[in-house]
Design goal:
With 172 residues, the protein is of the alpha/beta class. The chain is 39% helix and 15% strand. The chain has helices at 18-23, 47-56, 70-80, 93-103, 117-126, 143-161, and strands at residues 8-10, 28-31, 61-65, 83-85, 110-114, 130-134. It binds magnesium ion (MG).
Protein backbone atom coordinates (compact mmCIF):
# COMPACT_ATOMS: atom_id res chain seq x y z
CA UNK A 1 0.00 0.00 0.00
CA UNK A 2 2.96 2.39 0.55
CA UNK A 3 3.36 2.56 -3.21
CA UNK A 4 0.03 4.40 -3.37
CA UNK A 5 1.09 7.19 -1.05
CA UNK A 6 2.42 10.30 -2.84
CA UNK A 7 5.57 12.02 -1.54
CA UNK A 8 3.81 15.38 -1.91
CA UNK A 9 0.09 16.17 -2.03
CA UNK A 10 -1.16 19.56 -3.19
CA UNK A 11 -4.32 21.20 -4.46
CA UNK A 12 -3.02 21.88 -7.97
CA UNK A 13 0.10 22.44 -10.04
CA UNK A 14 -0.06 26.07 -8.92
CA UNK A 15 0.34 25.36 -5.19
CA UNK A 16 3.45 23.15 -5.38
CA UNK A 17 6.63 24.58 -3.82
CA UNK A 18 8.92 24.31 -6.85
CA UNK A 19 11.90 25.97 -5.18
CA UNK A 20 11.84 23.23 -2.60
CA UNK A 21 11.91 20.66 -5.41
CA UNK A 22 14.91 22.40 -6.96
CA UNK A 23 16.68 22.37 -3.61
CA UNK A 24 16.01 18.67 -3.20
CA UNK A 25 17.72 17.98 -6.52
CA UNK A 26 14.79 17.60 -8.90
CA UNK A 27 15.68 18.58 -12.47
CA UNK A 28 12.96 17.01 -14.57
CA UNK A 29 9.18 17.17 -14.14
CA UNK A 30 6.91 14.62 -15.78
CA UNK A 31 3.49 16.24 -15.82
CA UNK A 32 0.31 14.31 -16.51
CA UNK A 33 -1.98 15.92 -19.08
CA UNK A 34 -5.64 15.14 -18.46
CA UNK A 35 -7.09 16.74 -15.37
CA UNK A 36 -3.64 17.79 -14.18
CA UNK A 37 -2.55 20.35 -16.80
CA UNK A 38 -5.88 20.80 -18.56
CA UNK A 39 -9.39 19.42 -17.92
CA UNK A 40 -9.85 16.14 -19.79
CA UNK A 41 -11.35 16.47 -23.26
CA UNK A 42 -10.15 20.01 -23.76
CA UNK A 43 -7.33 21.04 -26.06
CA UNK A 44 -7.38 24.67 -25.05
CA UNK A 45 -4.30 26.08 -23.36
CA UNK A 46 -5.10 29.24 -21.45
CA UNK A 47 -2.78 32.16 -20.82
CA UNK A 48 -2.33 31.41 -17.14
CA UNK A 49 -1.04 27.91 -17.93
CA UNK A 50 1.16 29.08 -20.77
CA UNK A 51 2.88 31.69 -18.60
CA UNK A 52 3.20 29.31 -15.69
CA UNK A 53 4.86 26.56 -17.76
CA UNK A 54 7.12 29.16 -19.35
CA UNK A 55 8.38 30.16 -15.94
CA UNK A 56 8.71 26.56 -14.79
CA UNK A 57 10.87 25.74 -17.81
CA UNK A 58 13.57 28.00 -16.42
CA UNK A 59 13.90 25.67 -13.44
CA UNK A 60 13.12 22.22 -14.85
CA UNK A 61 13.05 20.09 -17.96
CA UNK A 62 9.30 19.75 -18.50
CA UNK A 63 7.86 16.65 -20.16
CA UNK A 64 4.14 16.03 -20.56
CA UNK A 65 3.76 12.39 -19.59
CA UNK A 66 0.39 11.03 -20.61
CA UNK A 67 -1.35 7.77 -21.36
CA UNK A 68 -3.39 9.55 -24.05
CA UNK A 69 -2.64 9.09 -27.73
CA UNK A 70 -0.04 11.06 -29.59
CA UNK A 71 -2.15 13.60 -31.48
CA UNK A 72 -3.79 15.25 -28.49
CA UNK A 73 -0.67 15.22 -26.31
CA UNK A 74 1.51 16.59 -29.12
CA UNK A 75 -0.88 19.45 -29.81
CA UNK A 76 -0.78 20.71 -26.24
CA UNK A 77 2.95 20.05 -25.82
CA UNK A 78 3.68 22.01 -29.00
CA UNK A 79 1.54 24.88 -27.82
CA UNK A 80 3.38 24.99 -24.51
CA UNK A 81 6.77 24.42 -26.12
CA UNK A 82 7.64 21.38 -24.02
CA UNK A 83 8.64 17.76 -24.69
CA UNK A 84 6.14 14.95 -24.32
CA UNK A 85 5.73 11.23 -23.97
CA UNK A 86 2.33 10.05 -25.17
CA UNK A 87 0.96 6.54 -24.62
CA UNK A 88 3.15 6.34 -21.53
CA UNK A 89 1.36 3.21 -20.24
CA UNK A 90 1.32 4.41 -16.63
CA UNK A 91 1.54 2.73 -14.14
CA UNK A 92 3.75 0.25 -16.02
CA UNK A 93 7.48 0.76 -16.37
CA UNK A 94 7.45 1.23 -20.16
CA UNK A 95 7.16 5.03 -20.32
CA UNK A 96 9.26 5.68 -17.23
CA UNK A 97 12.10 3.57 -18.63
CA UNK A 98 11.86 5.36 -21.96
CA UNK A 99 12.28 8.72 -20.22
CA UNK A 100 15.23 7.49 -18.15
CA UNK A 101 16.97 6.17 -21.27
CA UNK A 102 16.25 9.19 -23.43
CA UNK A 103 17.03 12.00 -20.97
CA UNK A 104 19.55 10.28 -18.69
CA UNK A 105 18.30 11.82 -15.46
CA UNK A 106 18.86 9.84 -12.29
CA UNK A 107 15.77 8.60 -10.47
CA UNK A 108 16.28 11.14 -7.70
CA UNK A 109 16.24 13.96 -10.23
CA UNK A 110 12.79 13.18 -11.64
CA UNK A 111 9.36 13.96 -10.20
CA UNK A 112 5.94 13.11 -11.57
CA UNK A 113 2.90 15.34 -11.06
CA UNK A 114 -0.52 13.80 -11.65
CA UNK A 115 -4.10 13.52 -10.49
CA UNK A 116 -4.43 9.74 -10.20
CA UNK A 117 -3.24 7.35 -7.50
CA UNK A 118 -3.50 4.31 -9.73
CA UNK A 119 -1.42 5.57 -12.62
CA UNK A 120 0.67 8.61 -11.68
CA UNK A 121 1.47 7.92 -8.02
CA UNK A 122 1.67 4.14 -8.09
CA UNK A 123 3.64 4.17 -11.35
CA UNK A 124 5.99 6.89 -10.15
CA UNK A 125 6.67 5.21 -6.84
CA UNK A 126 7.40 1.92 -8.58
CA UNK A 127 9.79 3.77 -10.89
CA UNK A 128 11.61 5.16 -7.86
CA UNK A 129 10.94 8.83 -8.61
CA UNK A 130 9.34 11.58 -6.50
CA UNK A 131 5.55 11.53 -6.73
CA UNK A 132 3.24 14.52 -6.45
CA UNK A 133 -0.54 14.12 -6.35
CA UNK A 134 -2.87 17.02 -7.21
CA UNK A 135 -6.65 17.23 -7.34
CA UNK A 136 -8.27 16.49 -10.71
CA UNK A 137 -9.26 19.66 -12.59
CA UNK A 138 -12.63 18.30 -13.67
CA UNK A 139 -14.89 15.43 -12.72
CA UNK A 140 -15.29 14.41 -16.34
CA UNK A 141 -13.07 11.42 -16.95
CA UNK A 142 -12.37 9.19 -19.91
CA UNK A 143 -13.92 5.72 -19.80
CA UNK A 144 -10.89 3.90 -18.42
CA UNK A 145 -10.25 6.69 -15.96
CA UNK A 146 -13.77 6.20 -14.57
CA UNK A 147 -12.86 2.62 -13.74
CA UNK A 148 -9.60 3.81 -12.21
CA UNK A 149 -11.48 6.35 -10.10
CA UNK A 150 -13.64 3.60 -8.66
CA UNK A 151 -10.57 1.60 -7.66
CA UNK A 152 -8.88 4.78 -6.46
CA UNK A 153 -11.76 5.59 -4.12
CA UNK A 154 -11.45 2.19 -2.50
CA UNK A 155 -7.66 2.56 -2.26
CA UNK A 156 -8.04 6.00 -0.67
CA UNK A 157 -10.49 4.65 1.90
CA UNK A 158 -8.10 1.86 2.76
CA UNK A 159 -5.17 4.28 3.07
CA UNK A 160 -7.32 6.51 5.27
CA UNK A 161 -8.22 3.63 7.59
CA UNK A 162 -4.52 2.77 7.89
CA UNK A 163 -3.71 6.42 8.66
CA UNK A 164 -1.51 6.69 5.59
CA UNK A 165 -3.38 9.27 3.53
CA UNK A 166 -6.28 11.65 4.07
CA UNK A 167 -8.05 13.25 1.16
CA UNK A 168 -7.87 17.05 1.38
CA UNK A 169 -5.04 17.10 3.92
CA UNK A 170 -2.26 18.58 1.83
CA UNK A 171 1.43 18.23 2.61
CA UNK A 172 4.82 18.91 1.09
MG1 LIG B 1 -4.82 12.59 -15.30
Amino acid sequence: MEKYVPDIYQKSIYTIDYDKLVNSGIKCLLIDLDNTLVPSNTIIVNDKLRKFINKLQKKFKIIIFSNAFNKRVKKIADELGVDYQAFACKPWAYGFNKIKRKYRYKEGEIAIIGDQLQTDVYGGNKAGIVTILVNPLSTGDAFFTKINRYIEKRKMNKLYRKGMFTKGRYYE
